[in-house]
Amino acid sequence: MSSLRIFVVNHKNICSLHINNTCCYKIRASLKRLKPHVPLGRNYSSLPGLIGNDIKSLHSIINPPVAKIRNIGIMAHIDAGKTTTTERILYYSGYTRSLGDVDDGDTVTDFMAQERERGITIQSAAVTFDWKGYRINLIDTPGHVDFTLEVERCLRVLDGAVAVFDASAGVEAQTLTVWRQADKHKIPRICFLNKMDKIGASFNYAVESIREKLKAKPLLLQLPIGEAKTFKGVVDVVCKEKLIWSPKSDDGKDFERKPLLEMSDPKLLKETTEARNALIEQVADLDDEFADLVLGEFSENFDLLPAEKLQTAIRRVTLDQTAVPVLCGSALKNKGVQPLLDAITMYLPSPEERNYEFLQWYKGDLCALAFKVLHDRQRGPLVFMRIYSGMIKPQLAVHNINGNCTERICRLLLPFADQHIEIPSLTAGNIALTVGLKHTSTGDTIVSSKSSALAAARRVEREGGKKHSQNSEAERLLLAGVEIPEPVFFCTIEPPSVAKQPDLDHALKCLQREDPSLKVKLDPDSGQTVLCGMGELHIEIIHDRIKREYGLETYLGPLQVAYRETILNSVRATDTLDRTLGDRRHLVTVDLEAKPAETSSLLPVIEFAESVGEDLSQASREAVENGIHSACVQGPLLGSPVQDVAITLHSLVIHPGTSTAMISACVSRCIQKALKKADKQILEPLMNLEVTVTRDYLSPVLADLAQRRGNIQEIQTRQDNKVVIGFVPLAEIMGYSTVLRTLTSGSATFALELSNYQAMNPQDQSTLLGRRRGLS
Predict the structure, then answer these.
(1) Name one Pfam family in it (predicted).
(2) 71 beta partners
(3) Percent of the residues in the chain that have a pLDDT greater than 70, as a whole number
(4) b vs e for 375-387, b when ≥16 Cβ sit within 10 Å of the residue's Cβ?
(5) How many C-alpha atoms does 285 have within 13 Å on its Cβ side?
(6) CA pair distance 508, 708, nearest whole angstrom
(7) What is the 3-state secondary structure (H, E, C) of 659-716?
(8) pLDDT attached to residue 545
(9) What is the CA radius of gyration of the chain?
């Protein structure tokens, strides 16, 4: 029992259960206080020979060929049931001994203290398990808009996805966001209409919303037997069978699969036959091979078409992303999850069925992408990798192409939420957790050695048919990383004392490496540390984690909106810098023009006049560009970044011996002079807002949005509710959740997403500037 320590439990406190050498996938969270007589913790998986034989051991996870591996993600709008569905999947696949509940705070994948307190997923969690001979690497992703990056970087390395929908709401705001992300990465997916037992659930409404809002073609593989309170099972349209879950079964493991018969279920059989015929016609329209089969052998009677032929065709159209299979059930009531698992293995692709162009350059050598980094107090950085080719073993030296450095993998682990099992090797197509890579970050490409990267570069050059520069070769070899969104909120953060500043810097450095959407910068005027995040909840979670995980009682300043600035007219400025340092004279004269850019751009568009561009050296050109970029970091009105501006350099006179730093300084000062002369405009972040509210409270919600400078686009009807869709400035929506709860007695919900930056009107701009200067 040396590998398992059990501490005594009294009625007031329950200590954490620590499994020997078990590291945290997310930083280890304290177990929630439980009532007396509740068993200690949950056994996610049993160590061999220690705890019963009814739960599978992580050591027993199969290592099948690549064709039987599925890398999938669970994605959805917040509160659609992703984590509950994941919990049921783990239970039915045999890796947990009890069903966890989000409300009780005892689920496998939501184990951070912040997640259990709020009942939401904050960080994506990976679990590995097997199902009927298939190995499934599953990632449960967040649904909250503040943590969109978590979804983005997980979808980057997955081969398929399950989109979960609330059957009473259909497609919601964040559903659209994650669907677009999946489209960007060209990921095949299946839809699971969850919460079919919920009051107001409507199968037809949810399917129609998928068709209209997502512009997808749903393939109805199942029909519900009853809806809301009458929901008791599903009909398998492909096989014309009904699946009924026993009301006596508490955990949903017991269900009956019976063929539909004319004698016992005439009405259901008729509906299913019609649905199957419609499904066959729909698939035949999308797949020529299947159409030839149907028209040739089974044109007279679709009932004679074997289910296996139909399933194969459905798989082809799913992988081609021309349609999406739709299943239904209720994860909370333990219905419909086992057929979902079967659909994952049957219709979603294996790693070898995904086409990755870069693999041809590596010829079987190691190629992997680091997509997530976590910090463990004992083991240091833990790096999650998707292996595209080759094999990873412990003590293997690997080369990081992005960082141009070589590191050694100390240990190799198989992820299971906050538990991990050490393994001797892992092959292509899998997701691995590595220990020992101290310089690897999210989005880095990992290969076996520098020579392997050079050999791949030579293949790119040879097979590409023309010479490439060294830089372009490296770019061709790099796997596409993750696009990190710009933060929209910022606030100052201060340690309890100056002595604790190094500890705060270390904590923020670790958290930044884990979460690339968190930006930290130093205010040049006040010297304060500034946190930049994706939303109020994001900043709140970071603050809480610093307190719990690093033991620092930090103080946050008021939340502020990340404004931007631009100019409205063209201005020209000249500046001369003349300095003598030691016995060297540095003399630069700059003549440039700043004007509004023709297209929207976060970075300044830099142009050189013909007379200047020809004679300018590469070092001087880089110095000019550095000066322009540094000047546009802080605008003249609020000190916010300047965007949508084009800079044209008309003249640059440099005295011999002048350093590049002086050139940058002169250009920067000249641009600041030009920006001050121009007519300036503040840009504010505009948010897409979607409020779901009952008819009774619609009027007060609309009146409140009007006071917040809201622009209502449309009001939709969703079952018995109204959905208000519009745009609202971010500055006006801070603290909106509390106000909305008060207005609607807690019955309304809302979702926010950054739309774009828009110009403020003159009155609002002068009010903002007055407030910043302390005049109002």
Answers:
(1) EFG_IV
(2) 137
(3) 84
(4) bbeebebbbbbbb
(5) 10
(6) 34
(7) CHHHHHHHHHHHHHHHHHHCCEEEEEEEEEEEEEEEHHHHHHHHHHHHHCCCEEEEEE
(8) 87
(9) 29
307/315 Cα distance (integer angstroms): 12
| Binding site as annotated, residues for GTP | 76-83, 140-144, 194-197
DSSP string, 555-570: EE---EE--EEEESS-
Contact 163, 325 (CB under 8 A): no
Which tens digits make up the pLDDT trace of 73-92? 998 887 888 888 888 898 88
Provide the sign of the torsion angle of the four alpha carbons 418, 60, 17, 434, taken in this order.
Answer: negative
Task: Tell me the HSE value of 293 on the side-chain side, using a 13 A CA sphere.
Answer: 17
| Cα(399)–Cα(741) distance, integer angstroms | 52
Distance in angstroms (rounded) separating the CA atoms of residues 111 and 174: 23
Binding site per annotation, positions: 76-83, 140-144, 194-197
189-194 and 324-328: which strand pairing? Answer: parallel
Residue 674's pLDDT is 92
The predicted pLDDT at position 114 comes to: 59
Would you say 318 and 282 are in contact if contact means Cβ atoms under 8 Å apart? Answer: no
- Give the Cα separation of 126 and 111 in Å (integer): 12
Q: Which two tokens stand for residue 58?
A: 């992580």
> What per-residue string of b and e applies to 102-120 under the rule 16 or more CB within 10 Å gives b?
beebbbbbbbbbbbbebeb
Q: What is the mean pLDDT of the chain?
A: 81
Least confident range of 466-480, 605-619, 686-700: 466-480
Q: How far is CA 258 from CA 233, 243, 268, 269, 271, in A?
A: 11, 7, 13, 12, 16
Helices (H), 216-358: 266-286, 288-297, 307-319, 337-347
Greater confidence (47 vs 558) lies with: 558
Q: Is the pLDDT of residue 127 over 60?
A: yes
- Whether the Cβ atoms of residue 18 and residue 49 lie closer than 8 Å to each other: no
Among candidates 564, 507, 576, 584, which has minimal Cα distance to 765? 564
Structure tokens at 175: 């559903």
- Rounded distance, CA 247 to CA 195, Å? 17
Instruction: List the one residue out of 84, 101, 31, 44 whose CA is nearest residue 417.
Output: 44
* Residue type for position 634: Q
pLDDT in tens, 295-353: 887 777 788 888 999 999 999 999 999 999 999 999 988 999 999 999 999 999 999 88
d(CA 546, CA 556) in angstroms, rounded, equals 12
3-state secondary structure 2-66: CCEECCCCCCCCCCCCEECCCCCCCCCCCCCCCCCCCCCCCCCCCCCCCCCCCCCCHHHCCCCCH
Taking a C-beta distance cutoff of 8 angstroms, is the pair 667, 651 a contact? no
Residue 648 burial by CB count (10 A; 0-12/13-18/19+): exposed, middle or buried? middle
Q: Give the count of beta carbons closer than 10 Å to the beta carbon of residue 328.
A: 30
Residues of 240-260 as b/e, b for ≥16 C-beta within 10 angstroms?
bbbbbbeeeeeebeebeeeeb
